[in-house]
Amino acid sequence: MKTGLLSGILAACLLASGIAQPFALATKKAPPIDTSDEGDYNIAPPYSNAPELKRRDDVPKGEVYHFTLNSTDSKIYTGISKHTPGVVPYQRRVTVYVPKQYVQGTPAPFFVSQDSMGSNILPTILDNMIADHRLPVMVGVMLDSGGDDAQGSQRGLEYDTMSGLYAEYIETEVLPRIAKDYNVTFTKNPDARMTMGGSSGAACALSMAWYRPDLYHRVLSYSGTFVNQQYPSNPETPHGAWEYHERLIPQSKRKPLRIWMEVGEFDLRYKDGEETLHNWVMANNRTAAVLKAKKYHYRYVFAAGAYHVDGKVVGQTLPQAFEWVWRGYPIKPAK
After folding, report:
1. Which among 50, 49, 48, 28 is positioned nearest to 39, based on CA atoms?
2. What is each CA distance from 248 to 31, 239, 254, in whole angstroms?
3. Cis-peptide, bond into residue 123, ω within 30° of zero
4. 3-class DSSP state for residue 113?
5. Residue 112, burial from CB neighbour count under 10 angstroms (0-12, 13-18, 19+)
6. What is the rounded distance in angstroms from the CA atom of residue 212 to the CA atom of residue 162?
7. Could you give the CA distance from residue 215 to residue 191 in angstroms, rounded to a whole number?
8. Which fold has domain 3-325?
9. Coil/strand/helix, residue 263
10. Which residues pair with 303 in a beta bridge?
11. What pLDDT score was predicted for residue 36?
12. How far is CA 15 from CA 226, 262, 290, 303, in A?
């Protein structure tokens, strides 16, 4: 099916369902993996895993480490639960990927992945793409949230809060532990730091870079929760992450960020009206539109027939997303 016809059908379906559509759906075809083009793109099923997900025998294999963080050791996130009053301790699983090519003592580019997103496939993707000099020799930090979901939960507090607190948590409590235990030196260069996630983890990724551009310049988002999930309420951002496209991005000076983002056609509450502040498709479309208007470096992928953080879409697009997000960063051949 041609992309223009697909967009027309999708737009007609949205209008027929009574959803206001103050934005145009993407009209470009999905670009080849080696393009630097920016803007809005449609992709459509059938979806299939990218070749980079296949393990290769001819590339060096990085080390993968696992450890657990206890909330009782944290000064920032001691633990809450919407089901139980008071402090509710939790444990957080952390996965660390260190490429074979990494030289100890060298400041390493790295990414932080919320909800440990991609921890099952990213080591293989990175082995392949680092060996092919398509990505820098980077460390991966993939960690779980503190648990549960939405307003009143530990995960919601970490991911949906509109502040730089979670970025501070990573900087002061997570990275030092990894640096000490696994002999990794993390770069301080924000242009060599990426943050990523899906759903509220994606909203968190944008917040890490938005509130702390001194720490992160690169963002990767799947089905970003750019809706009103924040708890407790903050009078400075009363609509939570909905504020990104409603006010923050349009009314702020452009920040030095590079953002790749995706949403599925049937993403969460895609039939909701604007008044709910909870339509994921609308929120992502509008976020892409304001990024475009402010002349950000961004790429937005609208995935037809896809759902919330759709695994098939992730498997097809994640290598390309990584390559695009890291475009412009110097990649030196491993010695």
Report:
1. 28
2. 29, 11, 10
3. no
4. strand
5. buried
6. 11
7. 8
8. Rossmann fold (3.40.50)
9. strand
10. 43, 264
11. 61
12. 22, 21, 22, 18
CA distance from start to end of the chain: 46
Name which of 139, 150, 146 is nearest 179 in CA terms: 139
Amino acid at 167: A
User: What tens digit of pLDDT does each residue of 45-64 get?
Assistant: 999 999 999 999 999 999 99
Structure tokens at 196: 């990523």
Contact (Cβ atoms closer than 8 angstroms) between residue 142 and residue 119: yes
Cα separation of 219 and 227, whole Å?
A: 18
Do the beta carbons of residue 325 and residue 286 sit within 8 Å?
no
Record the pTM: 0.91
Find out whether 143 and 112 touch, Cβ atoms under 8 Å.
Answer: yes
Rounded CA gap, 248 and 242, in Å?
A: 9
The token duo for 300 is 């937005």
Residue 28's beta-bridge partner residues?
41
Q: Report the C-alpha dihedral over residues 238, 243, 248, 250, rounded to 10 degrees.
A: -140
Q: Per the structure block, which two tokens stand in for 183?
A: 């002999």
What would the two tokens of residue 229 be?
A: 């999930």
Q: What is the pLDDT of residue 329?
A: 96
> Could you count the other beta carbons within 10 Å of the beta carbon of residue 183?
11
Over residues 244-290, the pLDDT tens digits come to 999 999 999 999 999 999 999 999 999 999 999 999 999 999 999 99
Q: Supply the DSSP string of 12-34, one letter for each residue.
A: HHHHHTT----SPPP-EEPPPTT
Determine the longest span between alpha carbons in the chain, in angstroms. 59
pLDDT along the chain (335 residues), means of 10: 39 35 43 66 95 98 98 97 94 98 97 98 98 98 96 96 98 98 98 98 98 98 98 95 98 98 98 97 97 97 97 97 96 65
Alpha helices in 109-265 (DSSP H): 122-131, 154-159, 165-169, 175-182, 200-211, 243, 249-251
